[in-house]
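Section 3.1 - Work completed
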Amino acid sequence: MRLRLLLFVAFFFLAPAANSQTATLREVHADGLKTLTEANIVALSGLSAGAQVGRKELQDGADALVRSGLFAKVGYNFNTHNDAVTITFHLEENPHLQVSYDNFPWYSDSELSDAIRKDLPFYDGTLPEAGTVVETVANSLKAFLAAHKASASVEHAVLASPLSDVSLQQFRIEGLTPKIARVEFSDAGLTEDRAVLAHLPEIRGKAYSRMAIDIFLSEAIRPIYQQSGHLRAKIGPAEVRLSGNPTQKLPEEIPVFIPCDPGPVYQWKGVEWSGNAALSSITLTNTLGLKTGDVANGMAVEGGWDLVRAAYGHLGYLDAKVNAKAIYEEQAHTVAYSVAIVEGPQYRFNAMVITGMSLAAERLIQEAWTQKPGDVFDGKLFEQLISNLESHRDNIFKGLPVHYETVGHFLQTDPTKGTVDALLDFK
């Protein structure tokens, strides 16, 4: 995290305070606040009205705000009057991440949040990426566990959410290992689904973790709904339903209940393209491979966008972007898409750079690559080359003994020249 401390210092203690170099702090103000209050700033800075302060104390207060992690910018200025000083902080708040309590199954989120607010009254379920406030939350959770006779450390990390395009500030217990005893769904159809039953061992009997459950829902449950046209199915969040005396030893077997609402089945209505020049709308629609009136298979839709990008890569448009927006008609239960294409530059092949191979093996790879410098680069051919190097080595090396485990590959483009270098690294 990059923080800049902007100092606007004009520290002039007027007589008679000039000789003492300190003054009574009368007021603390702040501007630029969005989620915090001036009272919060007073608490975070460690400054308090009525205290004797000098340059060091004011600077220490600003430093404390920086270390909190809550602010991208911290600046201040102050003035004195009648042997008293007023300080104003100029602040820019950092963006906050949603907090996730990963493996605290015995307690509700509200219980944990209330415990945290005893130390951070302004806590609202979100935190910055790092800073002293994050450490304070970790310590608050550790103290809460200790008060409930559970000795464990609390770790934290910023992780991507498997269910949405956001990052989470995750807190998890180290030292306690509750297990997922069973998994139940509100949708009875899932309970009997063969694919679900095949995937359940991935989490059942394993360590309880919200992140693990969310990954399971994203990778195992969501595709089942998507394939059957339930494009707006509501899945989770998972719930823990414990019974028994909460004052006794924490249970190690955790039952998990997952509410699921499949919603309606949607039919495919079509797609409208814009921004495409290298490929016609008819070609793009055929590439997508979906027919009007069919059940809208969400996985096929997502795969279709990949096919469109691959079609552009086949023509050298390696930077092509497919911006798809779904348009739902709830009464008819249909879905159409408005797709804006940004084709970007067309690239031509410049050179292939190979590392980690013998000269003989490198020569065979170069011979297998049919494109010459100046040819429109074919992304499909490059993918075929990588596939052969990874899974069909004899197609390339024709019996020559080679020894490598992985093939690193990267396309280094130069948009200004419209050229691309293919980089291969064998290890």
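Second construct:
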Amino acid sequence: MKNRIITIMALLWASGSAFSQQTNNNPLLHLTVEEAKAYAVQHNKTVWNAGLSVSEAQKRTWEVISVGLPQVNASVDYSNMMGFALSFAGMEIALPPTSNFQATVSQLLFSASYWVGIKMSKIGEQMTETALLQAELDVKHQTQSAYYAVLVAQENKIILEQNLKNLEAIAKTTQDLVRIGVAEQTDVDQIKVQVLMMTNVIKSIERNTELAYNLLRFQLGVDGDTQIVLTQTLDDLMEIKNRNERVSTDFNLYNSYTVRLLEGQIDLANKQVSLEKASTLPTIAAFYNYTYKIAKSTFDMSPNNVIGLQANIPIFASGQRHVKMQQARINVEKAQNNRDLIIESLLLQEKQLRFNLHSAMETLALQKEAMKVAQRVFESITRKYQHGTASSLDVTTANTSLLQAQGNYINAMMDLFTAQTELEKLLQTM
């Protein structure tokens, strides 16, 4: 894990990436889906903070270990009696100023709580490493979803722009028919209304596309001026073979980062029980004390060197330790129950997500066919209108049906990508 963090830091420090270029003013990134996810893992602030948490946990473990290593402390003191004299046997004995330099070396010899504390710190360190992996998975999921959203918005715009061209051509033809007295101005106006509505829809799609790009920039950890070029198309991502290969992976429940974090919580709860048990055992430490007397008093009988042992023995705490032990055992049971609940939830979620994906694939196929039918109907009505056998109202109705079918197809495509991404995240195949 240390090497992993160092690698990420090095990638962050390096100027640019293998798939990014710099223009004179704005950065430019050419990204596939996998490259976008890799870039996000290296630059996203959430992942970066999770990596820092791992480093912090490693330092905290060393902090706990250092408690049981030799401790050295030094102090210097100075005392002045302000001319005070001690009366003894009729004599006045002045007490001069005193000053001492003292050094103390201590070493913990036995402490059950110390060893339990180290184990708990190690568990906490492992949990932060798992949390880092979970953060990376979450960022990959969010980046992939944002990537898909941009492509779907672009595809929607392409479809609508083609519709707009068709309507503009019909409007022009209708205007020509008005000039020769074959059609009425009302027919032109109805078609123009459709043109204006389509233009507004396209402008709305353009704004939504920019919003999708901004969300992708946020996940990538780049600023708003960064230009992003998506090098994969919807056709690439719609490959059913690739999708089936990725989602056919079996769900290994105990490889789930969520379950691993819950198992870590159970381990911590069990170690808390051990810690409460350890608190009933004595703690033994050795010490050595050296004093160098810079200025001695008249009567100085204290030694320069002292060595000894110190034992702290818990005897009676009015049931406090027993109550803490019971609380710790209750927390173990609660942690186990939480894990079992989450496991049941994940198993249900897996079944639901697989069902959602199959359903989304079927729905997409149906909506694609429905869009083709609506397109053929629109083209047929358009030809009839040009030959005078259909009205402008028929064209408007057919165009509305086509727009609805195209919208349903776009929504079905986004639902498919969402279902696929959610299942990949659960299976940790991203």
